Amino acid sequence: MNSQVLDYTISQRWDEEIAQNTQMFFEADRLDAQAYNIIEHYSGDAMTWARFTEAKKLADAQRTAAYREWMRIRRAMRT
Question: Is pLDDT above 60 for 9?
Answer without folding.
Answer: yes
